[in-house]
Amino acid sequence: MRNIVVLTGAGISAESGIKTFRDADGLWEGHDVMEVASPAGWHNNMELVLDFYNKRRKQLLQVEPNAAHYALAELQDFFNVKIITQNIDDLHERAGSKNVTHLHGELLKVRSTFDEDLVMDWKKDLSVGDFCEHHHQLRPHVVWFGEAVPMFLKASQICSEAHILLIIGTSMQVYPAAGLIDFAPEGIPVYFIDPKPNISSSENLKIIPEKASVGVPRLVDEFTKMKT
User: Fold this and answer.
1) Which parts of the sequence belong to the Deacetylase sirtuin-type domain (predicted)?
2) Which residues contact 199 (CB under 8 A, 6 or more apart)?
């Protein structure tokens, strides 16, 4: 089976009702992102950060995957599909995708502030005083501004083995995620699906100027017809 590597961003989840990471005014749900998505914000006001992610978690549990998520899951019947997402939701998994790498962590998980490898599933509110087994506070299992991206090495390796690359709902302008495309083999077919593409087509780059729920099923249909 050929390897299809998929890079997804906020655009694919926005259609399910998940707010994009940052609105045009630079705020996230009315907050400066550094207040709720940085180590400094955590140390300055832990309760604010926990409340912020508690609300995001509740929102996530109320939405469903959309047509783009389901189409990518269907693609697994014909190709070896590996998804690398900047999103912290679980919509890819809920739609049926089996191989998903979360660059920026997962909203439905928490981890120990004492041992970052001590990670656990978490679907309820997280509060001050919720401790790990070592009696240290638990925090959202999310990569904040200023923190390392531990899954980047794995993601770059996945990209290096791609035969086809799909980029969906992300501008690919935020690093280090934007650098992943540089690891893909030179000359492989690249498909960029976004309603407002910020790049132009080239010899091996095809632009599909559609929202994810339209463009992804259409492209998947093309791929599956080639395999049947």
Assistant:
1) 1-228
2) 192, 205, 207
Characterize 109-135 residue by residue with b for buried, 16 or more Cβ atoms within 10 angstroms of its Cβ, and e for exposed: bbbbbeeeeebeebeeebeeeeebeee
Total-model pTM: 0.93
> Exposed, middle or buried, 103 (CB in 10 Å: 0-12/13-18/19+)?
buried
3-state secondary structure of 153: helix
201 annotated binding-site participant:
no
Q: Which of 104, 134, 141, 163 is catalytic?
A: 104
Mean pLDDT, contiguous 10-residue spans, the chain (228 residues): 95 88 57 90 97 95 98 97 97 98 97 97 98 97 95 97 95 77 94 85 89 97 83
Annotated binding residue 19: yes
pLDDT value of position 225: 84
CA–CA separation, 170 vs 9, rounded Å? 4
Any known ligand binding at 73? no
Strand order across the 138-142 sheet = 119-121, 105-112, 138-142
66 is an annotated ligand-binding site residue: no
pLDDT, residue 32, reads 84
Q: How many helices (H) and strands (E) does the chain have?
A: 8, 11
Is 211 marked as a binding-site residue?
A: no
User: Is 104 a known active-site residue?
Assistant: yes
